[in-house]
Design goal:
Strand order of the largest sheet: 4-3-2-1-5
Order of helices and strands: HEEEEHEH
Number of helices: 3
């Protein structure tokens, strides 16, 4: 069915993004020019993953908790899903640079 094809294409896209995502420390030195590979959201919370550790649930990225700024650091997705069970993955995410997101969140 077309619905099955749609969800299959989304799963393939996410798998491709995760497989080709930078590893931990791989974007070191890029600073605000780094582009996230995944975006999670719920309410006024936004989480932008920039590096993926394939051996653990510890990733690196930037988080906005709706307080007017982005904070960089390690992100434990398992913990987040426990604390925010309604967290959504943005299937139609088109990455911008962290500098662009900072401009959006911090003005």
């Amino acid at each position: 069915s077309s619905e099955q094809n749609y969800y299959s294409s989304i799963a393939d896209k996410i798998n491709s993004v995760v497989e080709s995502a930078p590893a931990i420390y791989e974007t070191d030195g890029q600073g605000n020019d780094t582009k996230p590979v995944l975006h999670y959201f719920w309410g006024n919370v936004d989480i932008f993953i920039t590096e993926i550790d394939r051996e653990s649930q510890q990733h690196y990225g930037y988080t906005s908790l709706g307080m007017g700024y982005l904070e960089g650091g390690y992100i434990d997705l398992q913990y987040l899903f426990t604390q925010l069970p309604l967290l959504n993955l943005d299937f139609n995410f088109t990455p911008k640079t962290i500098a662009e997101y900072k401009q959006i969140y911090e003005g």
